[in-house]
Hints:
The protein has 401 residues and is an alpha/beta fold.
Amino acid sequence: MGRANKVVLAYSGGVDTTVCIPYLKNEWGVKEVITLAADLGQGDELEPIQKKALKCGAAESLVEDATESFVRNYAFPAIQANTLYENRYPLSTALARPLIAKLLVDAAEKYGADAVAHGCTGKGNDQVRFDVGIMALNPKLKVLAPAREWGMSREEAISYGEKFGLEFPVKKSSPYSIDRNLLGRSIEAGILEDPMAEPPEEIYLMTKAIADTPNEPEYLTIGFERGLPVTINGEKLDPVTLIARLNKTVGNHGIGRIDMLENRVVGIKSREIYEAPALLVLIHAHRDLESLTLTGDVTQYKRGIEQSYGELIYRGLWYSPLKEALDGFIQQTQERVTGEVRIKLFKGNATIVGRQSDNSIYAPDLATYGAEDEFDHKAAEGFIYIWGLPTRVWSQKTRGM
Length: 401
């Protein structure tokens, strides 16, 4: 008895997801497999992938261009939240997973499938993100994960596929596991599994080595409206173009590399290399603009919210009640986050050198130490007395003075 009759399979064209097609049909009795490849701006030509799925036995092969939704509905909220997992990783890969989960569920509902499937293994984060995202969007759908259960090595998976006429061109395989989309690239495995090994320059694609970057700094100004990036150097751009242009400009100066030991959802540590030039600079600039437009207590409280927000995304809880509640708080804070931030790009560094906003609550006549100073210095003595009174009373009682 099969586990499902009709399945929508998340499809990348790689070995694992390709082998999933005959495996689901022949081992698990699935009658019909529909593949879905998501275009998230990764730069791949998806038409060959679409044809490959049909050749390998898929009943239908879907390609969904979701790049604009990816930026507008997933990346931009993360920028407004200044989201950095473990204070470093801007979630460029993790943000794609709830969108892919939604595309899978939408396709399953449209085509009358009773299950969705993916090619994730049992030790990664993505299995958690897909499974939890799918069950949140449609708890009636079954979630199948053949690669988590079949126990085959990569070579065995290739041999299995060849038994059903699948072809895997012989080529020198990369030792690295790489995932990419418009927001960035993640690189792991190979020599990178040694925490002391310096990442070889060959793994990078979006960012230049410092030795190859320009010898003169470049300045750019990013404009925000209600916390959303909308302009570069005064030119209004659509979300996808803005991210793409920033990736190129920022990466040209060697900015956007991350090398970290990361705590995965399943409890193990993993050495990860990321490239996310645009996303890192946008978060850096957005956070700075908030310092100009938000009160101190809101800014400080929001930092804790940002940490929780990043952990929710990383752990696959994009579609959760807590995430939805935090969205409400974050959106409220963004009403006044409109203005411009000027950034200097040079030799691997993105340095903020200026910011301005019509909503600024920076008061020069209070901040200055010059003749224009209007701060009432005499008021400070009374303030300090009241502010320090609890400490003074505590000291008197505990020290007997």
